[in-house]
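DATA SHEET
Item: assembly model
Revision: 1
Owner: S.N.
Input lines:
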Amino acid sequence: MMRFVKGLSTFRRGPWEMVATLLIAVGVFMLMQPFVMWAYTYSFIVTLIGTVMFIIVSHFPESE
Amino acid sequence: MSDKTIERVASATPVRVARKVRGLSDRAVAWIFVGPTIFLLLAINIFPLIWTINLSFTNFKANRPNRVVEYIGLRNYERILSDSDIWLSMQATAHFLFWTLFFQVLIGFTLAWLINKKFRGNDLWTTIIVLPMMLSPAVVGNFWTFLYQPQIGLFNYVVSFFTGRDPSSFEMLGSVDLAPWSIVIVDTWMWTPFVMLICLAGLRSIPDYIYEAAEIDRASKLRQFFTITIPMVLPFLMLAVLFRGIENFKMFDLVVQLTGGGPGSVTEMASINLKREAFEKWRTGYSSAFAIILFVTVFGLASIYVKALNKVKER
């Protein structure tokens, strides 16, 4: 856990990609889930943030 | 390449062209070759994408080109993301996507595993299994419509043979409960061979000596399957899931042929809804925003898959 937080604070690719991937997955789930409307409403912004973040953080340096 | 060959090729270049090319750097020559492709890519992919993003912020209607186009900000996105009909079409897409991928991976891998065993007529069976994939979706949609006919369709008779139900007592394409499953069945029938072929490539790439080493170590067949076969086929399987997932997310032709989105709108998937908004209601700005939402979703999913694929390859 400490390694993950340290990776985030030092802008390492691995942990940041993990966060972006999680956002995309949550966004897609929110888009297609049949339970609550508000989740559907906010799904696009979550997916968009995740996708843009993924593109940016994939240029970060690798973890040591 | 020998000096003679180089001289022959050089002398074959017309003098006029040779004079023009002389003096260009390697980089410039490379740009001359790559330039047309980049131009085509920009013209066919990038420009329409940017144009669609631009249209998604307007109230443009393609059937009224002379009307004044107004920029309405994010209103199209707001409308789409609070529209319960589009939410339902997303749920229909999710149902189709999940179950087709599930069945295609399960049956495709099993078939590949069986075909990979050495037996007589192996190649013939592979060809027979691969046949549905080679058909046009329009043709497949049409003949499955006949197969699903309650009175004359073969499908209902086969089901009645196994279950004892009257063949005309249920209608696959006309029932609200069965129609989503009918399109899952057809897509699985058509595209399982594709998953099978990719899995077969993965299975055939595993060298025999790994299994021989496992035999020497007295590993059971089940253990060999879970510690050798599955991990080594996984990158191929993920590639198949990626391809089929993206294709099925934007599935259109097969479903239009089979159900046309009905009965009601139970099989109206995102792509069909998008087409209706764009070319039946002519809400071009609105449908552009919808297209961008679908694009971002597919792009995000593809990013995850590519990352996962690279991770599996590194192992």
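QC remark: The helical segments of chain A are 2-9, 13-32, 37-57.
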